[in-house]
Amino acid sequence: LHVAAEMGHLQCLKLLLDHGIDPNLITPDTKSTPLHLAAEGGFSECVSVLLSKGAKSEARNSKGQTALHLASRVLSLDCVEVLLEDGRCNPNILDCDKRSALHSAVGKALNSSDITELLIQKGADVNQSDIYGYTPLHVAAINENTTCVQILINNGANVIGKTKGGSTGLGIIIRK
User: Fold this and answer.
1) What does the alpha-carbon distance between residue 41 and residue 113 come to, in Å, rounded to a whole number?
2) What's the whole-model pTM score?
């Protein structure tokens, strides 16, 4: 089941699930479920099928990440939408480093702004600090993602919030 999910083999996934394989089985090393693997691969149809068969959308891997963290990191808008709608995944769940899916979404890729907007629309906290004090604004500014920086500011991101090292989001924006 894990291999089918990771490879996006929808028919194999359906067949295994129809024969009673538990959709919440975890790998021994990373504690990943098939849902984690499908989301990380960007396979939204597999994510949808897994959820319909009882996969737990808020299951955490060994890093404390949900499938939503992984789908956001790989910038799979389709998977993010399915996880938020069908899986009713909470966008504010924090991983072991206290990072939310929004921290994962604000990379340099083109569709990061779409995912950023969707996560905010679903209630993501724009000012959540990770264990180092970095908010999504800090991360977007470091990645020089002007569009995400603007979206975050327009949605109430604190530009003067400091990291543990004393950097503000505004300071990073000015430097970059």
Assistant:
1) 19
2) 0.93
Cβ distance 131 to 98 under 8 Å?
yes
Categorise residue 89: left if φ over 0, alpha if ψ from -120 to 50, beta otherwise: beta
Sign, CA torsion 14/19/25/28? negative
Return d(Cα 19, Cα 144) in angstroms, integer.
48
Name the residue among 109, 110, 122 with its Cα closest to residue 155.
Answer: 122
Cα 78 to chain centroid distance, Å, stands at: 12
Rg (CA), the chain: 17
pLDDT at 110 over 80: no
Residue 168: DSSP 8-state:
B
* C-alpha distances out from residue 70 to 59, 76, 96, 99, 158, Å: 12, 9, 14, 12, 25
Structure tokens at 88: 């009713």
End-to-end Cα separation, the chain, in angstroms: 44
Tokens 């530009």 -> residue: 159
Token pair belonging to 28? 């021994």
Q: pLDDT per residue over 8-47, tens digit each?
A: 999 999 999 999 999 999 999 999 999 999 999 999 999 9
DSSP state string for 68-105: HHHHHHTT-HHHHHHHHHTS---TT---TTS--HHHHH
Is residue 5 within 8 A of residue 35, CB to CB? The reply is yes
